[in-house]
Design goal:
By secondary structure, this protein is an all-beta fold. It contains no helices and 18 strands. The radius of gyration is 25 Å and the shape is elongated. The two termini are 22 Å apart.
Length: 226
């Protein structure tokens, strides 16, 4: 998934010995625009929307951001506003930009000081009353930028699990089987749930995960997160 946006698809589980599919789970993944990786920490998007329609943008805001600035430029080419949803779920709505009968503004803007780190959603909504102004669509430019970004020292991960590794005494050519044991840090009982190992998600079975690893490097790298 290289292009930013929202993706939804069904994860299908099927027992080949039974008719039909056995399980369908809807999965939704958001791929945001990473503002910190863009030139001058700024995203610029131009588009158009028919009356009453909207378009969603997802923005990755890193820790240490001093300010998140959002600007919607419409001019006399339509009428639109922004709905902004923070990672915490609260929403703020801008004024309309573009044509109108009163309080006409060519541009609407919102500024958030010390924005929460995470994925922000910006929804551009094209007014349903465009026909009043003899317009069929809204042409707009959206600009999102970060200001005063400072580097944040990495934090020590939460001590959730103790991990031990037990290699198998039997090795296939070029491969090694290893069982990882996960124990709760405080209670020392086998852990339950899921963990990410080398970018793959594994479910813990009685606190263990068994991996088959290639013997092409020593030591064998394991990147584990939860």
């Amino acid at each position: 998934l290289d292009e930013p946006g929202l993706y939804s698809e069904f994860l299908v589980a099927d027992d080949m010995d039974t008719p039909g599919t056995d399980l369908n789970i809807l999965q939704t993944v958001i791929v945001p625009h990473d503002l910190a990786s863009l030139p001058q920490d700024t995203l610029t998007q131009t588009s158009n929307l028919p009356a009453g329609q909207f378009k969603r943008y997802f923005l990755q805001v890193p820790e240490g951001s001093g300010q998140l600035q959002l600007k919607l430029d419409v001019g006399q080419k339509g009428r639109a506003r922004m709905h902004v949803i923070s990672p915490w779920g609260w929403q703020e709505v801008s004024s309309y930009a573009g044509v109108g009968e009163t309080m006409v503004r060519e541009q609407a803007s919102l500024t958030f000081d010390k924005p929460a780190a995470g994925v922000w959603e910006v929804v551009v909504y094209s007014s349903s009353t465009l026909s009043t102004f003899d317009l069929k669509q809204t042409n707009y430019k959206l600009e999102a930028s970060l200001k005063d970004v400072t580097a944040v020292a990495q934090k020590k991960p939460i001590d959730r699990y103790l991990i031990t590794a037990v290699p198998s005494s039997y090795q296939e050519e070029g491969q090694l089987t290893v069982t990882l044991h996960f124990w709760h840090y405080n209670t020392k009982v086998p852990a339950a749930g899921v963990v990410m190992i080398n970018n793959r998600l594994y479910e813990l079975e009685q606190g263990t995960v068994t991996l088959t690893l290639p013997l092409n490097s020593t030591p064998i790298p394991l990147h584990i997160s939860w």
